[in-house]
Amino acid sequence: MALQFKAGLRVFAFVTLGWATTCFGQTAQQTPAPGLGSIRGTVVDGSGAVVAGASVRLTREERSLNEDRPLSQDAQSGDDGQFSFANVAPGPFQLTITSEGFSTQTSSGILHSGESYVAPRIALEVATAVTEVQVGLSPTEVAEEQIKDQEKQRVLGFLPNFYVSYARNPVPLTSKQKFELAWKTTLDPVTLVITGGIAGVQQAQNSFRGYGQGAQGYGKRFGASYADLATNTFIGSAILPSLLKQDPRYFYKGSGSKRSRILYAMASSVICKGDNGRWQANYSNVLGSLAAGGISNLYYPATDRSGVGLTFSNALLELGAGSAANLFQEFLARKFTRNVPNYDQAKP
Asked: Which residue, of 101, 124, 147, is where some domain finishes?
């Protein structure tokens, strides 16, 4: 009888223990809060194939009162392309889906209280490859653009003003560009008209008597004046600058005190910029003036040919005239020059 009682007691203990364990287990299990729902969906590509490993971010617009749940959650799509979010508070939400090689996609909706929301299939599009190519001009091309601007510059709308640069950062010219600028200056119609006017004044004053009068005399005077211009331009602004790597242009200063601008303009007859950007003695201008004066002895009448002393004197006079021309460029020419590029004032 005692044995039966002990056996029955053991059975009762096991039953009681099992019941208690079951009750405790049920008590420890979390129960979803009232009103929470879930969101799930599937990520596919353009062909409809599932996309695994896509990052999905759930973002809610606002947090409910007394709610400590985060406003955003993250998940990844599984091998079957599906993702899910549990225990989501009701309200508007947005899904942002990203995956390598695809464009970012978004999907939005409203989750109602206790709802199990199934998002429409989210199809990712292949990202478009965007290649940014920056095309820069070479120094030669930049110089060409600056020359085109210079060739539009005319004082009072008609006098060529090609050898003045208003650029903030002028680019050195190539030898070819120096010769092209010399050609365009000497062949400009206005240059020919001015040369013709000078020859007419010389004819009227009977300068260079050895040329005589009449059409023949005028033609010789015109030829001599044009030869002076051409030799001076090509030797001083093309040939020597190419050999000595110097820039034949005047670089407008336009800033600083009046005194500094005056000194700069006057010095520019004997100082120039090299193709390396450094200031140096303007051998091209000085030697060009001497060479042009020497060559003129080949075509002027014997009675008007200058000796060595007169050649040097004329070269000095020409340098002085160049300084005066530079002063005109620095303080007046820009005001009367049309088609001046809209550059900031240059700083040499």
From this structure: 124
Whether residue 168 contacts residue 346, with contact meaning beta carbons closer than 8 Å, is answered with: yes
**Can you give the residue range of the structural domain that contains 218?**
139-338
Q: 120: which residues sit within 8 A by CB, 6+ positions away?
A: 41, 107
Question: How would you class 126 by CB atoms within 10 Å of its CB: exposed for 0-12, middle for 13-18, buried for 19 or more?
Answer: exposed
- Over the stretch 154-182, which tens digit does the pLDDT of each residue have? 999 999 999 999 988 899 999 999 999 99
The span from the CA of 285 to the CA of 240, in Å, is: 8
Please check whether residues 163 and 292 belong to one and the same domain.
Answer: yes
State how beta strands 82-88 and 91-98 pair.
unpaired
In a domain, 11, yes or no: no
Q: How many residues would you count in the chain? A: 348
Distance CA 74, CA 59 (A): 9
Report pLDDT digits (tens) over 90-100: 889 999 999 99
Helix (H), strand (E), coil (C) string for 57-108: EEEECCCCCCCCCCCEEEEECCCCCEEEEEEECCEEEEEEEECCCECCEEEE
